[in-house]
């Protein structure tokens, strides 16, 4: 890098280019690249050849519209990023599409930009999308805006035409709370007032486009805000247990006390585990951290770590302003997925308070939000969410809405609603889950006597317990000695024993526990019934598998010897069948793996299920 | 994506890439990272080790076209040991048996058979739902339209006309039925960034990138269709100095890009990286 540049200038500035369709965005960007000398050798010639092949005149727009379909349709389909630099710094220009149906790509472009250039055709004037895009810029938090009044050549460089557009659009922007830094008259096609000052606009004393670009400032630095560290993952690749996440605001250092919300558990930062080292002494906004904790507490993806004195809000109801891009309108009572940083919860729009037509800013009356509209709504999540108001901390105050695995909209949080807690009445599963910090689950260990079910289950219990989870073991032998004392080993009695074990496990799960059931349960049909009985809860079938000969050779309880001597009738594997599960969730070959490996497999399966199902607490 | 004025440019890029790695690992069931042994690929390995505290928790895949430069095979073994890589190697043996070769076929056909078809077979074999790629937006106009997380259908097809929106750090975290998601941590990097980062972090790289007798490779692929560029840059400092001045595009020496007017788009829509 050139020595005279200070560090601020080295930061790449992301600028989005928006405006009504055919107001000349791609032409402008093509020309900007050309005039700043940012094109690779041969690019212009290549595009000229392509144009000639299609029998078209050369256009600067074709530099960007590199995809075949675009050239045929003459429309920018998707957000294109292109890099260029002025003498002062590097830029990524985001060329957002102007065609109405591609609004989502405009959102994708504008959400990552620090500043915007908005083109208005001097000849056509302010159009629908000129207004809509400004509205979205204000919603997406892009505050720096320069308006380019393009195609000045078509209005004979008329200052009065320029002034008319400036006055009209300034009034409009003011209604959104936006101010344009400048309105620059340009003719992109001829490169006028882009890098070179135009001789045709002697009345224009303001900056050229590149001068205006170089005057943009980078978005606010969030390092001074309270710490917000959303947990991305927990790594257990070796003996270390590492909480992984990116600092989204503030900073974090060893010995900081942390509180993880929702859940409210506290611990202290012990170390950062940076590779290749040495570890940083402080991790600041925008950087990923690998944190070990002094006290082992239950932490999971989605929680936000903060300092106890400056926590985010925790709640499940708030008012938000939403933009909706889905083909189907956003409706009330339907369940969507709400994603806020690493949190992913179910959410329902409980009421639509206001819908704004992005073209006219007029309010319309409806209880659903159509595509390409903005609304103010009340949102309720099925489990508590950690968040800030958008005005307090933008990054934790905004979210995306997903339906069927696809993002269709987003919003910013305007106001938290404290839900009237109904503290009378029965305690719900979700209340229990909120207290324990995890969803309940049933883990069913099946396998021959001596296969190692109890050994692995005990190990899993220990690890879950130490991690602060509510866990209980339902052991087949214990049941035989108590609840099932009246049952023998006939097929009917075995079925009844499975049913009773399921019922016990269900009671434990209903009260918020992870229930570990160890029962031979030799018949597939019985195990299927157990799964059906426990359908309310995440269910993990663990097949603890070892060849009969291996189990028999272990014979910890001397049962195989007794069975061989005929002292036990209908003993599974000897005188009674065992139907191995065809597709267990976890399959452990205890004759081939260590107990530790087996325990790890089960823990991983539990983690997966709790992460996936954790949000489905409302059962 | 990052918001700290004090960070330098490379740290900013690095930290964004690490975040992408971590989000991919958290979101997908089974992740794999194709590895070409080229400079971008080697930077990815470095970033993955930083993301996961030293150990890459998923396998790497080398699609061996059998046309790699001999030095690349040597480099592969050294790097594999150095980084503790769990490496899967796959070759499209069937295409080779059918006589697909650069001597007899055009580069687009051979590249498609030996890279894309082999990659698809490996995805079918291992059922990965996420592939980490080293593509960058500055390499080619079709790559400029990429997303951090880019879904591919079961046939490996990229529906670039209907891409999911991507904003506020929320990515397409679900693979289409039978398909996978391309995860692209280097999207925002430029070729110059890559080299400056390699220098800063001292990341091992093949020496084919450095000039011998007035020529060096700027991008590495199959030897019959990869041509060196004129250069006297014989070490990393000289490469960086050269890149700051050059006007020749990075992939100019890669023949498969330049067969037809839209050959890169055609290759990529069918599943090429």
Can you characterise this structure?
The complex is a heterodimer of chains A (619) and B (273). Chain A is α/β, with parallel strands linked by helices. Helices cover 27% and strands 28% of the residues of chain A. The longest helix of chain A is centred in the C-terminal third of the chain and has 20 residues. Chain A is elongated and about 110 Å long. Chain B has 273 residues and is an alpha/beta fold. Chain B has a domain of 182 residues: Rossmann fold. In chain B, helix 1 packs across helix 2 and helix 7 runs antiparallel to helix 8. The model of chain B has no long low-confidence stretch (mean pLDDT 87). Chains A and B meet through helix 1, helix 3, strand 2, helix 5 and strand 7 of A and helix 1, helix 2 and helix 6 of B.
Mind telling me the CATH superfamily name of the largest domain in chain A? P-loop containing nucleotide triphosphate hydrolases
Shape by Cα distribution of chain A: elongated
Number of separate structural domains of chain A = 4
Span of the ends, CA to CA of chain A: 58 Å
Euclidean distance between termini CA atoms of chain B? 24 Å
Radius of gyration of chain B: 18 Å
What is the helix tally of chain A?
16
Please count the beta strands of chain A (DSSP E, at least 2 residues each): 28
Gross geometry of chain B: globular
| CATH fold group of the domain at 9-190 in chain B | Rossmann fold
- Which range best describes the helical content of chain A: under 10%, 10-25%, 25-40%, 40-55%, 55-70% or over 70%? 25-40%
Q: What is the top-level CATH class of the largest domain in chain A?
A: Alpha Beta
Largest sheet: spatial strand order of chain A: 2-3-1-4-5-6
Instruction: Indicate the structural class of chain A.
Output: alpha/beta
Q: Can you tell me the residue ranges of chain B where pLDDT is under 50 for at least 5 consecutive residues? A: none
Please tell me how large the radius of gyration of chain A is: 32 Å
Average pLDDT of chain A, to the nearest integer?
86
Helix count of chain B?
A: 9
Low-confidence region ranges of chain A: 1-9, 67-78, 613-619
- Which structural class do you get from the secondary structure elements of chain B? alpha/beta
- Bin the strand percentage of chain A: 25-35%
């Amino acid at each position: 890098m050139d020595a005279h540049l200070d560090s601020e200038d080295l930061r790449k500035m992301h600028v989005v280019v928006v405006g009504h369709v055919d107001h000349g965005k791609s032409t402008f960007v093509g020309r900007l690249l050309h005039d700043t000398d940012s094109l690779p050798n041969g690019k212009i010639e290549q595009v000229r050849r392509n144009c000639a092949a299609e029998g078209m005149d050369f256009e600067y727009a074709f530099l960007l519209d590199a995809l075949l379909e675009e050239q045929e349709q003459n429309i920018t389909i998707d957000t294109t990023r292109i890099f260029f630099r002025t003498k002062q710094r590097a830029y990524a220009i985001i060329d957002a599409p102007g065609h109405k149906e591609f609004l989502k790509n405009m959102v994708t472009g504008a959400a990552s930009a620090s500043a915007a250039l908005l083109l208005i055709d001097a000849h056509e004037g302010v159009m629908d999308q000129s207004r809509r895009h400004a509205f979205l810029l204000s919603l997406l938090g892009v505050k720096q805006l320069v308006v380019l009044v393009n195609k000045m050549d078509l209005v004979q460089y008329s200052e009065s035409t320029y002034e008319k557009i400036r006055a009209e659009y300034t009034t409009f922007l003011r209604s959104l709370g936006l101010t344009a830094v400048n309105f620059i008259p340009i003719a992109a096609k001829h490169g006028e007032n882009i890098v070179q000052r135009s001789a045709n606009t002697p009345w224009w004393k303001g900056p050229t486009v590149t001068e205006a670009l170089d005057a943009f400032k980078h978005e606010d630095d969030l390092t001074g805000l309270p710490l917000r560290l959303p947990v991305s993952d927990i790594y257990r690749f070796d003996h270390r247990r590492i909480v992984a996440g990116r600092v989204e605001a503030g900073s974090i250092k060893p010995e900081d006390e942390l509180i993880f919300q929702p859940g409210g558990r506290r611990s202290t930062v012990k170390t950062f585990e940076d590779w290749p080292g040495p570890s940083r002494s402080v991790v600041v906004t925008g950087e990923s951290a690998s944190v070990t904790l002094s006290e082992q507490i239950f932490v999971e993806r989605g929680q936000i770590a903060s300092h106890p004195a400056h926590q985010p809000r925790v709640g499940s109801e708030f008012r938000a302003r939403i933009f909706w891009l889905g083909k189907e309108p956003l409706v009330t009572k339907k369940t969507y997925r709400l994603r806020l940083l690493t949190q992913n919860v179910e959410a329902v729009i409980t009421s639509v308070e206001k819908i704004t037509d992005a073209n006219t800013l007029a309010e319309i009356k409806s209880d659903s939000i159509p595509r390409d509209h903005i609304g103010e709504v009340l949102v309720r999540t099925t489990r508590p969410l950690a968040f800030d108001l958008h005005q307090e901390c933008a990054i934790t105050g905004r979210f995306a809405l997903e339906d069927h695995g696809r993002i269709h909209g987003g919003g910013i949080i305007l106001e938290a609603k404290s839900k009237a807690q109904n503290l009378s009445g029965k305690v719900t599963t979700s209340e229990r889950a909120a207290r324990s910090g995890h969803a309940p689950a049933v883990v069913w260990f099946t396998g021959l006597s001596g296969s190692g079910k109890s050994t692995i289950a005990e190990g899993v219990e220990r690890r879950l317990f130490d991690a602060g989870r509510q866990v209980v073991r339902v052991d087949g032998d214990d049941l035989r000695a108590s609840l099932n004392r009246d049952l023998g080993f006939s097929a009917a009695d075995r079925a009844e024993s499975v049913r009773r074990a399921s019922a016990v496990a269900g009671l434990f799960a209903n009260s918020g526990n992870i229930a570990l059931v160890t029962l031979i349960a030799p018949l597939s049909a019985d195990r299927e019934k157990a799964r059906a009985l426990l359908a309310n809860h995440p269910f993990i079938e663990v097949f603890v598998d070892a060849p009969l000969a291996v189990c028999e050779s272990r014979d910890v309880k001397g049962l195989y010897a007794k069975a061989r001597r005929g002292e036990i009738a209908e003993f599974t594997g000897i005188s009674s069948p065992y139907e191995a599960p065809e597709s267990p969730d976890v399959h452990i070959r205890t004759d081939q793996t260590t107990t530790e490996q087996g325990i790890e497999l089960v823990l991983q399966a539990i983690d997966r299920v709790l992460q996936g199902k954790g949000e489905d607490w409302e059962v | 994506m990052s918001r700290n004025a004090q960070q330098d440019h490379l740290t900013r890029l690095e930290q964004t890439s690490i975040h992408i790695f971590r989000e991919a690992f958290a979101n997908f069931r089974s992740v794999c990272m194709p590895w070409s042994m080229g400079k971008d690929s080697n930077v990815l390995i470095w970033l993955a080790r930083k993301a996961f505290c030293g150990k890459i928790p998923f396998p790497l895949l080398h699609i061996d076209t059998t046309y790699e430069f001999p030095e690349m095979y040597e480099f592969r073994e050294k790097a594999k040991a150095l980084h503790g890589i769990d490496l899967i190697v796959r070759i499209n043996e069937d295409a080779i048996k059918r006589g697909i070769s650069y001597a007899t076929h055009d580069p687009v056909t051979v590249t498609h058979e030996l890279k894309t078809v082999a990659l698809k077979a490996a995805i079918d074999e291992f059922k990965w739902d996420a592939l980490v790629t080293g593509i960058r937006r500055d390499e080619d106009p079709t790559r400029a339209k990429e997303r951090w997380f880019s879904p591919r259908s079961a046939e490996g097809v990229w529906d670039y006309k209907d891409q999911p929106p991507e904003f506020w750090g929320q990515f397409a975290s679900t693979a289409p039925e039978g398909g996978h998601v391309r995860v692209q941590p280097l999207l925002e990097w430029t070729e110059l960034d890559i080299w400056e980062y390699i220098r800063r972090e001292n990341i091992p790289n093949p020496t084919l990138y450095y000039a011998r007798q007035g020529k060096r490779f700027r991008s590495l692929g199959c030897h019959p269709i990869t041509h060196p560029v004129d250069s006297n840059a014989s070490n990393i400092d000289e490469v960086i100095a050269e890149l700051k001045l050059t006007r020749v595009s990075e992939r100019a020496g890669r023949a498969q890009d330049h067969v037809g007017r839209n050959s890169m788009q055609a290759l990529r829509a069918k599943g090429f990286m």
